[in-house]
Specification:
The complex is a heterohexamer, with two copies of chain A, two copies of chain B and two copies of chain C. By secondary structure, chain B is α/β, with parallel strands linked by helices. Chain B has helices at about 15-30, 60-65, 80-85, 100-105, and strands spanning about 5, 35-40, 75-80, 95-100, 110-115. Helices cover about 25% and strands about 20% of the residues of chain B. In chain C, helix 1 runs parallel beside helix 2 (about 65-75). The chains are: A alpha/beta, B alpha/beta, C alpha/beta. Chains in contact: A-B, A-C, A-E, A-F, B-C, B-D, B-E, C-D, C-F, D-E, D-F, E-F. The interface of B and D includes residues 16, 19, 27, 32 and 111 of B.
Chain lengths: ~90, ~120, ~140, ~140, ~90, ~120
């Protein structure tokens, strides 16, 4: 993994107002990690802009039964989530 | 007529939906008429193939599949929310009735309770 | 493999067990961090998160017992677990000395969690190389 | 003034004190209902709402003590206050007999609240003329 | 007060997804009562459709400092809130 | 640089904003750089003339008015959210800086913490 400016960790469902705020705040060089209810964003197809690097926590994806809808994101385990927080200059938990 | 439990919160990330299911099953156990309406992010409770071992929670998929057998009168899913989340009969638990207009489903019941 | 950069973490949990996924996500994260050689300096419970420190939680036997799992993880790894005193007292989480001070009928903090002030969080912000928040989902 | 129609209420509280306004809104409503001659059959605490039944809550002295105010209101008006057992056990609210059954170090239910099953809510739904829910705000 | 079909009691801020759901479900003959964070809906000017009967709980309006923005609603106390629940055939707490 | 506490939840209906203020004041008390950003429904914390006696909670208006005195470096308010809620300098507590772009304010701080 290369160095990351800001790692945005989002745990809110797409309906939550903080989800839209998070997606608006992402800049080139940032990375988005979807966890918990936020993995449902991958099932909506439309909420994610192209061109950002997206990861999603695999246990949360599997729990929601959406492993087939995750083309936009790379699935990661907790070890990789730790590594993302190491690589990032700054981490924001939305 | 009867009670409609409305679940609009997503599965596993919050507990409210799970506890609303318990309420519905409890009414059914006492032979009271009850139906469930899933809407918003809550429709994701209805997706097939939920594998929850990795998050340390029990899946509710079996409970939902058995809801009609245990006396819940209907499982309604808001059609707009299902479309938004890519939910179609093929990837949903069986026995779900699509509701084109959930406000109409709400009007048809005399007692409405939300999940938290 | 690039050079290994070892971090020390302060983890802040603001979501309650059996209301949010925050305690379980944070525990899996903490275990993975330790397994990778990093250090967890401190776990700070704030807001609704203080309920994780309850000694009286009794979930059904076929569900995970997050308070028990967290307290064993903290003990096994000698990590400090702190519940914010202001959040805890309002929400009915008290230790022995707060029980006496407020003349309450019992105390209910699970070892090794302790009750302390926001200064513990401030110190974490100043001294840990990473501070991560685990919030509720609604 | 129209003809007076007297109601009997079951109130369901699903929001916790010091996290939501639900307990305070419900208390003001209940007092106004009693003052107007109506009856409150039962108050049922569910989900996060069970924290209202804690005997260990100790808010700062310049803040309202919602658990204390609710328990005094229930006692003064001989109203039944019930915390759902499934919600309560997960969240660390236990009475004397659950303490013994699960071998817990203490109990923390504030009188006159009791712990009972969802059947109490079902009965309220069947017998009260009005069932009102007081939810959390987020 | 005349008889009410359904009394909708809303306690969520306008950003909450349940707020929009509630406003969509209101029919002629229904009444909307705004309490707690939902009184902030009155400060947004735009979220409320014309032609529905709206009440707002006065203590919540005063707490938010928006007593000057409540032209669309009648302020009520808890005694009047009780009376609304008596008049209504059905009460929904959103 | 320093810590930015972000408050996007409305006043009084939830406790998260109140507890985030406590965090900010605590950092300031330890002479750590801290600022507050109010956005979404959270901007309503900044309105003047909050009379909270009727809901049995303490008003935070005085605390906010004193925030700069107690060492909080800035109170930012998201301009779009303020416009949505009819908030203008005249009806807001003093000392608030309008932020036309809150993402930019977030980028300027090294440590971001949300209210719950």
């Amino acid at each position: 993994m290369t160095e990351i400016d800001t790692l945005h960790i989002l745990n809110k469902a797409p309906e939550h107002p903080r989800s839209a705020e998070c997606l608006r705040a992402i800049e080139p060089g940032d990375v988005l990690l979807l966890i918990e209810s936020a993995v449902l964003t991958l099932a909506t197809c439309s909420d994610l802009q192209a061109g950002i690097t997206i990861y999603a926590l695999a246990p949360d994806v599997l729990a929601r039964g959406i492993a087939h809808s995750t083309a936009e994101a790379s699935l990661v385990d907790f070890a990789a989530m730790v590594e993302l927080t190491v690589q990032a200059q700054k981490v924001i938990s939305w | 007529m009867g009670t409609l439990m409305v679940i609009d919160q997503p599965p596993y990330g919050t507990w409210a939906g799970r506890e609303a299911l318990d309420m519905a099953f409890s009414l059914a156990a006492f032979d009271q008429p009850v139906a469930l309406l899933f809407t918003g992010a809550g429709v994701n409770w209805l997706r097939k193939s939920q594998e929850t071992t990795g998050i340390g929670q029990k899946s509710v998929e079996k409970n939902l599949s058995a809801a009609l057998i245990f006396g819940v009168e209907a499982l309604y899913a808001d059609a707009t929310a299902c479309a938004r989340y890519g939910l179609v009969p093929d990837n949903m638990v069986t026995g779900v009735a699509m509701a084109e207009n959930s406000a109409e489903v709400i009007r048809q019941h005399s007692h409405i309770a939300f999940a938290g | 493999m690039a050079t290994i950069s070892l971090q020390n973490y302060t983890l802040v949990i603001t979501g309650a067990p059996y209301s949010s996924q925050a305690p379980q996500t944070a525990l899996s994260f903490a275990k993975a961090a330790i397994a990778a050689g990093h250090t967890v300096d401190r776990v700070f419970l704030y807001g609704e998160g203080v309920h994780l420190a309850s000694s009286l939680s009794a979930p059904p036997s076929d569900e995970h017992h997050w308070a028990d799992q967290w307290s064993r993880f903290l003990s096994d790894n000698a990590i400090s677990g702190v519940a914010c005193i202001a959040s805890a007292l309002r929400r009915g989480l008290v230790n022995d000395s707060e029980q006496k001070r407020y003349e309450l009928p019992a105390n209910n903090i699970r070892e090794p969690f302790i009750i302390a002030g926001l200064g513990e969080w401030v110190e974490g912000s100043m001294t840990s190389s990473r501070v991560l928040y685990f919030h509720g989902g609604d």
